[in-house]
Specification:
- The protein is α/β, with parallel strands linked by helices.
- It folds into two domains: 26-105 and 207-316, 3-Layer(aba) Sandwich (D-Maltodextrin-Binding Protein, domain 2), CATH 3.40.190.10; 108-201, D-Maltodextrin-Binding Protein, domain 2.
- The chain has helices at residues 4-23, 36-47, 50-53, 66-75, 89-92, 134-145, 160-168, 181-188, 221-240, 242-253, 257-264, 272-280, 283-297, 307-310, 313-316, and strands spanning 26-33, 56-63, 80-83, 97-105, 108-112, 126-129, 154-157, 174-178, 193-197, 208-213, 267-268.
- The strands form three sheets. It has a five-stranded mixed beta sheet with strand order 7-6-8-5-9, with helices on both faces.
- Helix 2 packs across helix 10 and helix 10 (242-253) packs across helix 11 (257-264).
C-alpha cells in the first residue's frame, strides 16, 4: 500500500516534470512551397508527428517561391524555409543560412511553343520566368550553352501561375518553369517543346533544393539541431515509402496525387546517411559553391560567400 507521504512525493515530482516537458517544445515558423519537393518534408513531419517527437511545434506557412520566403525570414515573420536551387543566390549573398539539403532535383525545364525547336530559336522571343528561381537558373545555363545570354531574348518576369496562363494563351514564346507547372501547361498546350532540363547538366552541376534559417535564428543551435533531425527522418521516410509519401503530401495540399507522383520521380534522393557523408566530405558545400559561382557569372550577385560560410553543414553531420 502506498503511503500518503510517498503519494505526495510522486505528485510533486509529476508537477515538476510536466512544465519541463511543455517547455521542451520549441515553437518555429517554417515556410514551404506547394509542390512535391517543396512540401513533402513538412507534410510527412506533420502526418508522422515528427515535430513533437523532436521537441518542436511548427507553424507552417505556404509560399509561391523561395525569394519571397527569404523576404519573410528577413522581415522576422519566418524562422525556417524551403528554397529551390534557383534561390540559392540569397544565402550565397548573406541573406540566410542553409541548414540541410533536400533533393537533387531535375524538375526544371525550358519549354517553348510548338515550332520552336532549339534554344537558339529563342533569339528575340518573349520568355516568361519567375525571377530568382531554379527556372531562371536553368534558362541562363541553357542560353550560355547555346552561346547566348538573357540580352538575346526578351525576359518577362512573372510568378509561376502567371507563367502557366501566359504560355497557354500564347502571350510568351517560351518559359523557364518546373514541374508540376509544366504538366499543367501540357494539358493546355500538349505539343509544346521541352528545350532543356537541369538533368542535362548533372553531375557537373547539381541542383539541390534546401532548407534555410534566418540570420536571427542561426545562433539557436539547439533548435536548428531539432529541425535538422526532423528533416533527416522525414527524408528517409520519403525515400523508403515513395508512394505513401506522395499520398501524404497530396492529402496535406488537398490536391490530386497524380501530378505529385510524376514530380516525385524527377529527383535524386540520397539517404540522410549519404547526405551526412557528402556533407562531411565537402561535396554538398561544393554543389552550393558551384551554383553561387554561376550566379556571380550570370551577374545575379557579386562576391558570393564561400559555401562553408552559408552552409551550416556541421549541424547535418552532428558535429
Amino acid at each position: 500500500m502506498i503511503s500518503k507521504r510517498s503519494f505526495m512525493a510522486a505528485a510533486a515530482a509529476m508537477a515538476l516534470l510536466t512544465p519541463l516537458a511543455a517547455q521542451a517544445q520549441d515553437q518555429i515558423r517554417m515556410g514551404y512551397i506547394a509542390d512535391y519537393f517543396g512540401t513533402s518534408i513538412a507534410a510527412i513531419a506533420t502526418e508522422q508527428d515528427l515535430w513533437s517527437k523532436h521537441g518542436l511545434e511548427a507553424d507552417l506557412k505556404v509560399f509561391t517561391n523561395g525569394p519571397i520566403q527569404v523576404q519573410a525570414l528577413n522581415a522576422g515573420s519566418l524562422d525556417f524555409a524551403y528554397i529551390g536551387p534557383g534561390a540559392l543566390w540569397l544565402p550565397a549573398s548573406g541573406q540566410a543560412k542553409v541548414i540541410a539539403p533536400n533533393a537533387l532535383g531535375y524538375t526544371d525545364r525550358v519549354i517553348a511553343q510548338p515550332g520552336i525547336e532549339s534554344i537558339a530559336d529563342l533569339k528575340g522571343k518573349k520568355v516568361g520566368v519567375p525571377e530568382g528561381t531554379s527556372g531562371d537558373m536553368l534558362l541562363r545555363l541553357a542560353l550560355e550553352e547555346a552561346g547566348m545570354t538573357t540580352d538575346d531574348i526578351e525576359v518577362v518576369s512573372m510568378d509561376p501561375s502567371t507563367v502557366v496562363t501566359a504560355f497557354a494563351s500564347g502571350q510568351v514564346d517560351a518559359a523557364g518553369i518546373w514541374y508540376p507547372f509544366v504538366d499543367v501547361i501540357k494539358q493546355r498546350v500538349p505539343d509544346l517543346k521541352e528545350l532543356s532540363s537541369n538533368e542535362a547538366f548533372f553531375p557537373e552541376i547539381a541542383f539541390p533544393s534546401s532548407f534555410i534559417v534566418s540570420d536571427d535564428k542561426a545562433g539557436d543551435e539547439a533548435v536548428i539541431r531539432k529541425v535538422v533531425a526532423v528533416i533527416k527522418e522525414a527524408n528517409d521516410f520519403r525515400r523508403e515509402n515513395p508512394e505513401e509519401a506522395v499520398q501524404i503530401t497530396a492529402d496535406f495540399l488537398n490536391v490530386p496525387m497524380a501530378p505529385l507522383l510524376a514530380e516525385s520521380k524527377l529527383a535524386r534522393l540520397p539517404t540522410s546517411a549519404e547526405y551526412e557523408e557528402l556533407s562531411a566530405g565537402g561535396q554538398v558545400a561544393n554543389w552550393f559553391g558551384t551554383l553561387a559561382g554561376l550566379y556571380e557569372q550570370f551577374g545575379k550577385i557579386e562576391n558570393p560567400l564561400p559555401a562553408d560560410e552559408f552552409y551550416l553543414g556541421d549541424f547535418y553531420v552532428n558535429k
